[in-house]
Amino acid sequence: MGKEKKKSVTAKFHEKYFDNYSKRNMTIYLILRALVILTLIRQIFMGNFNNAFLCALTLILFVLPAMIEKKFNLALPDALQVIILLFIYSAEILGEINEFYILIPHWDTILHTLNGFLCAAVGFSTIDILNQKEFFHATMSPLFVTLVAFCFSMTIGVMWEFFEFGADQILRYDMQKDVIVDTISTVKLDPEGKNKAVIVNDIEKTIIQSKDKDGNIVETVIEGGYLDLGIADTMQDLIVNFIGAIVFSVLGFLYIKNRDAYKFAENFIPKMRKIKKV
Prior knowledge:
The protein has 8 helices and 8 strands; from the N terminus they run αααβααααββββββαβ. The relative contact order is 0.12. The protein is 60% helix and 11% strand. The protein is mainly alpha-helical and 278 residues long. Helix 6 (107-131) runs parallel beside helix 8. The chain is flat. The strands form 4 sheets. The protein has a two-stranded antiparallel ribbon with strand order 1-8. The chain has a two-stranded antiparallel sheet with strand order 2-7. Strands 3-4 form a two-stranded antiparallel ribbon. It has 3 domains: 1-104, no CATH class; 119-174 and 229-278, no CATH class; 179-227, no CATH class. It starts with a helix and ends in a 6-residue tail after the last strand. A hairpin with a 5-residue loop joins strand 5 and strand 6 (217-223).
């Protein structure tokens, strides 16, 4: 009886919040959800509770767009629904737990570029919807709507980097992935203590001396150069977020100017659902 009741509650939840999902999109959602649940069980058995938490967070993120869609009476295009689901799975499960960020070159870059594109789409649709409302008296130009979409995307990108920095500083993670560089330029090495950058080229190794809990000196050798502590990764993330935001902003601008000619842009733009008159 307990299982039947649980299935009934799950079915009602999906019926309430996923009624706008096509059969194909619902199938994709259920497959990804099953994969995450299997990963969650595996991580619990392995004792990786941080990864188990990421799995639980992923399951919440999967349903969040559908709940927002229902709450604010929005209609997400089929293509956007699939992209959001795949983006969440790629970032949390493949990226973090399966270590694609380390194993696959430019995985992080691809996701941050896509994030810039998607966030610009969300910002654009928000302003575009308001711009078409009768009660919203300020008619905004296509250029202004485009600018707001771009700024919204960049703001989300910056806030995410704040989150990564905070996690690294407080929880001692490495979300801002460190990279090894063979050249540095810093005023810290200026012997006169002035604001003059000293350039060190062709760094072969870096030796770090630290103390263990017993006070003994421990040496850590970094072969191939100097360890850049996250700044290169952060700036690269913001740059590709900028590129993604620019791409959609231009597309959104053209769409407003001629909605028929650039109708394919509607695949990425949420809209208000039409209220059926009784």
